[in-house]
Amino acid sequence: MVEAGAEEGIGFRFDRIARVPNTFDAHRLIWLAGQEGGQDAVVENLFRAYFIDAEDVGKPAVLKRIGIQSGLNPRRVEQLLAGDPGRSEVLAEEREARSQGVSGVPAFFVNGQRVVSGAQKPELLASVLGPALGQCSLEDGACI
After folding, report:
1. CB neighbours of residue 70 within 10 Å
2. What is the crossing angle of helices 74-82 and 24-36, to 10°?
3. Which domains does the chain show, CATH number per domain?
4. So what's the pLDDT on residue 61?
5. CB 114 within 8 Å of CB 100
6. Which of 5-9, 17-21, 51-55, 60-64 has the highest mean pLDDT?
7. Backbone phi, psi, residue 66, to 5°
8. 134 to each of 78, 117, 121, 129, how far by Cα in Å?
9. Residue 76: which of 34, 131, 109 has the closest Cα?
10. Crossing angle, helix 39-47 and helix 60-69, to 10 degrees?
């Protein structure tokens, strides 16, 4: 992973990660960002915090900072971290993923079928996903 990241200009720092945090609240933060239209920024900032800065993304203070830094409403982030918003939705998404055979990330699906799982080199992803996506319309996203 470190080598693959370096090839893409990503300086993974697995050597600095002290523990693997419980990421359930991070997933709830991503869910909230989906409600507010800022998922990409939250995911990017979570990944940077964990994989590069070796921060504990299970800690509420870290999640609050990331949420606000990503442009989420500070009050909604605080409400999320103080309560249960998004809990049932994230649990339902997790059950659905497991029912489709997903046990790790990333997992790529085309037309509801899992086509590749795990971290892969871009060339492999392109060789697997390219033909499948070639059957999809850029206009409406529908695939045959």
Report:
1. 21
2. 140
3. 2-97 (3.40.30.10), 103-133 (no CATH)
4. 97
5. yes
6. 60-64
7. -65, -45
8. 43, 19, 19, 8
9. 34
10. 130
pLDDT value, residue 134: 67
Long-range contacts, stretch 75-82, CB < 8 angstroms, 24+ apart:
76/32, 76/36, 77/29, 77/32, 80/25, 80/28, 80/29, 80/32, 81/25, 81/29
> Structure tokens of 60?
């509420």
Q: Give this prediction's pTM.
A: 0.76
Mean pLDDT of the region 70-78: 96
In this structure, what token pair is assigned to residue 99?
């029912």
Does the pLDDT of residue 138 top 60, yes or no? no
Rounded CA separation 40/35 (Å):
12
Kindly tell me the sign of the dihedral angle through the C-alpha atoms of 122, 124, 129, 130: positive
What band does 19 get if pLDDT is binned at 50, 70 and 90? confident
The full length of the chain comes to 144
Please give the C-alpha separations between residue 89 and each of 93, 104, 120, in angstroms, as whole numbers.
Answer: 6, 19, 28
| Beta bridge partner(s), residue 113 | 110
> Would you tell me how many other CB atoms lie within 10 Å of the CB of residue 77?
23
